[in-house]
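User: Can you recover a sequence for this backbone? Please restate the input before giving your answer.

Assistant: Of course. Working from this structure:
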């Protein structure tokens, strides 16, 4: 998505790198998925492209949901929490 947005703005990686104060190599690595951005870096990236951060995040979320993409670590943590909650939660007895 980031590469597509950059290209729609008719910016080269070098142009975006200058706007961000980063190297062209950094822009390339992010666009190829070799480097991840934290939320603050993503906000700066989106601002450099002159795009609404909230609109971008909503679009990204919808796109990820469409493809069923979630980080497997999140699924594992969620499942562990569910198991823990089920083990500690009092279950109603049959005669209640």
């Amino acid at each position: 998505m980031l590469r597509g947005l950059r290209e729609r703005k008719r910016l080269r990686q070098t142009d975006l790198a200058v706007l961000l104060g980063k190297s062209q190599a950094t822009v390339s690595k992010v666009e190829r998925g070799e480097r991840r951005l934290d939320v603050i870096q993503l906000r700066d990236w989106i601002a450099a492209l002159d795009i609404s951060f909230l609109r971008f995040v909503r679009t990204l979320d919808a796109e990820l949901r469409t493809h069923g993409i979630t980080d497997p670590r999140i699924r594992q943590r969620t499942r562990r929490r569910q198991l823990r909650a089920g083990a500690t939660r009092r279950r109603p007895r049959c005669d209640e």
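That completes the design. Helices lie at 2-8, 13-20, 24-32, 39-48, 53-67, 72-88.
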